[in-house]
Amino acid sequence: MLYAVLEDQESMAQRVIMYPKEWDASIAGALDPQTETSRRLLRNAAKRYKVMLQPVAPMLKTGEESTFPLAGLLSLTAYNRVIHLVPSGLVLDTSGLDHLFTLPMESDMLGISAGTADGVASPSVVLLKPSKDAFQTAIESLSAKKYDEDDLLSRMPLLPDLPEDQVHIVAKASSLRLEDDSFNATAFLDSTSYVHLSDPEILGPEFDTPRESLAPVIPKRSEPKRAWLEVHERYREMRMDVCGLDLEPAPKPVKENHSSS
After folding, report:
1. Which residues, at least 6 apart from 111, have a Cβ–Cβ distance to it below 8 Å?
2. pLDDT by residue (tens digit) across 112-153?
3. pTM greater than 0.90 (yes/no)
4. Which of 50, 65, 95, 217 is deepest in the core (most CB within 10 A)?
């Protein structure tokens, strides 16, 4: 969906999707329905939104499980800078994201974070400076037994969101609960580049979460509530209009088996 926004707003950034190389060797209809849907969406992205598709081999493989770490983006040495948007989220204004291509970087990977309701700082946008040396270092540091993407994100150097008088790059949906009565939903929707739709208490926005589960995470104040509902509704509409996908049914909770002895 984000590529549709990049195309509509005429962002000059090259768009790249990396996908498992093994998909190319699979016979049509031999993969599971979810993967077949992903392949269909890849073809549409390339045709409609000028996305370059790049097959990649897994950096880690344990048994039948393949892993494609975020650090693999350091292999894209044809580019001076790569921007990764941590899913799931909604792009509202591409100009702020384009601004990141000019941001000085002292490390190979840099995260941009926004405030969250749970107080845990983790990046919603990741900047990478690809190089052969950085990629080789990433390969050597990976361990099939110890690799954890969440751990990588938590240890990444963080750059706070840029001052509001420059450009508002990123916001997290959960941080809207922290806003006071001075918050303006219209200004937020007009000035924010990327909204990371992440609330730790519920499933991602791609799931049809029951209303009773949403109630505790929706902001109480009027304007933050309007912004929260608006970005989630836009996400739902774009998922259908661009991808042709409805929301996924929320998984049913596993019932505990209480047996007597």
Report:
1. 122, 123, 124, 125, 126, 127, 153, 156, 157, 158, 159
2. 887 665 556 688 899 999 999 988 887 777 765 566 677 777
3. no
4. 217
